[in-house]
Amino acid sequence: MKKSRAHFPKIGPIAYEGPGTAKQLAFRHYDPDEIVDGKPLSAHLRFSIAYWHAFRGTGADPFGPGTIVRPWEKGRDALSVAKTRMDAAFEFFQKIRAHFWCFHDRDIAPEGRTLAESNRNLDRLVAHAKAHQKASGVKLLWGTANLFSNRRYMCGAATNPDAHVFAYAAAQVKKALEITLELGGENYTFWGGREGYETLLNTNLKREQEHLAAFLHMAVDYAKAIGFKGQFLIEPKPKEPTKHQYDFDVASGIAFLRTFSLERHFKFNIETNHATLAGHTFQHEIEVAAAQGMLGSIDANAGDELLGWDTDQFNTNVKELTLAMVSILRAGGLGSGGFNFDAKLRRPSIDPEDLFHAHIGGMDAYALAFKLARRILADGKFTNFLADRYASYDAGFGRDIEIRKVGFKELEKLVLTKLGEPTPRSGKQEYLENLLNSYLHG
Ligand code: XLS
Ligand code: NI
Ligand code: NI
Hints:
The chain has helices at 41-45, 51-56, 78-95, 105-108, 115-136, 163-182, 205-226, 250-259, 272-277, 282-291, 318-330, 352-379, 381-389, 396-402, 408-419, 429-441, and strands spanning 15-16, 26-27, 35-36, 39-40, 47-50, 100-104, 139-144, 187-191, 196-197, 231-235, 244-245, 266-271, 295-299, 339-341. The protein is an alpha/beta fold. The strands form 4 sheets. An 8-stranded parallel beta barrel has the order 5-6-7-8-10-12-13-14, surrounded by 4 helices. Strand 7, helix 6 and strand 8 (187-191) form a beta-alpha-beta unit. Helix 5 runs parallel beside helix 6 (163-182), helix 6 (163-182) packs parallel to helix 7 (205-226) and helix 11 packs across helix 12 (352-379). Residues 271, 273-274, 310, 312, 342 line the site of one nickel (II) ion.
């Protein structure tokens, strides 16, 4: 691959300068090379850049077109623009020190007039990406297919009332799986796109859910057929673009997967902003997935408390992230997953430099949260508190309840003859909140 000129000429690789630095284009908490438990911090955090936001985002909103104009987006031939854009992207990945990236098929290559032409375009850009991955060492965290932008998908893809659209989506995902395999993708994500509905006046909910399950089974079968060993991920979201998205949250996702015998093949990609849109905390969604051994990956972003849609902001809320990290570390980490910045610049943030500030903020907040969570877990105060709170189930009749050795009759007898009235114990929430703050603020 020929060496292209720099697209971010004024910015070098971002260095770790420590918390005291006055420099803004520097990491205060994220030192990718710091060794923690025998491996570098970069291997614990596995940060990933979302191609669609970082390199296809223009700042467009329903009230106006894009505001963000990148110098590399010039030229008449869509394929060569796509290649130059990708050169800029890999320069950015390296300068921001992210070791992974994620993309939708249509992010990296223009859609053609036919599926065959789209596939040919993809092949050109996949070859380009492969060369870039090899030269830079940047890896693919996950691939996915865009089954929601094109007009044909306006009523869904796998849940479209028209089987023809289902077939088209199947063909598109087939190709997306092939290119994810080709690029060594460690996971493949299914976000629900327009799999949901606006009104039951025109929707057969039961059939649509069955069609979605059939689609996912086909994906599992095809992955097996081509030898794709990456982890499949479901990314739940309660609403937007449709009013009722089928993959509402992790709990409904688990029920769906179990209902259709898919649970062995999937884990969850949990997005912070989707959790809060569902009326949950980020940590809640992580715990629900972890409780079933189905915690897969994270789409790292944040919503706005006052807005009811997916604002996809960079998350700098260290308290929220520390709580999330405690749950992730307790669950044993993310395995083949990582922290993908599914987050975008605000519409007026139009400088290329803003891309750096945004990701530095997100990476630093996660790195700090990781360190705080490790301290919290090492101290053991919260862990001990929890263990103590549930200790009555560790032995005796509590244990018998957990292993289902006793039933109502035995327990009634116990209360009548031995136990009598229980003694209530404080939940100590305020004490625990203060304890948490002592870690966050010293
Ligand atoms: C949209 C989703 C999307 C997925 C990938 O809300 O977050 O960006 O992560 O299709
Ligand atoms: Ni996402
Ligand atoms: Ni989202």
